[in-house]
Design a protein that fits this description.
- By secondary structure, the chain is mainly α.
- The chain has a domain of 54 residues.
- It contains 4 helices and no strands.
- α1 packs parallel to α3.
- 1% of the residues are buried.
Length: 95
């Protein structure tokens, strides 16, 4: 099997999008083109590294959004308006 064929199978087996599957308006080479330009031994290293990385990366489970904080600021209702709070938050972000 050729190195290119092995590379394509390795990429597709990992669920990595190949060139042409999604277009981005930029002038950079795609990941597949960059890997294709590597010598065969380096291509094998890329495949091995990618498989190892995919095996060690844990995807965190999606949690349902909770709003336990709702109502926590009721005691400040008469002191601040939402505009006051927005302005204060903007000030905190700019510091």
């Amino acid at each position: 099997m050729s190195a290119r064929r092995s590379l394509e199978q390795g990429i597709h087996g990992l669920g990595v999008a190949a060139a042409g599957e999604q277009s981005y308006p930029c002038c950079m080479k795609t990941l597949e083109e960059m890997i294709h330009d590597l010598p065969p031994e380096a291509q094998r290293q890329v495949i091995d590294f990618t498989r190892e990385l995919a095996g060690t990366t844990k995807i965190s489970p999606k949690r349902k959004l909770t709003q336990q904080w709702a109502g926590a600021l009721k005691r400040y209702r008469d002191q601040y308006t939402s505009l006051d709070l927005q302005q204060r938050a903007l000030g905190w972000r700019s510091d």
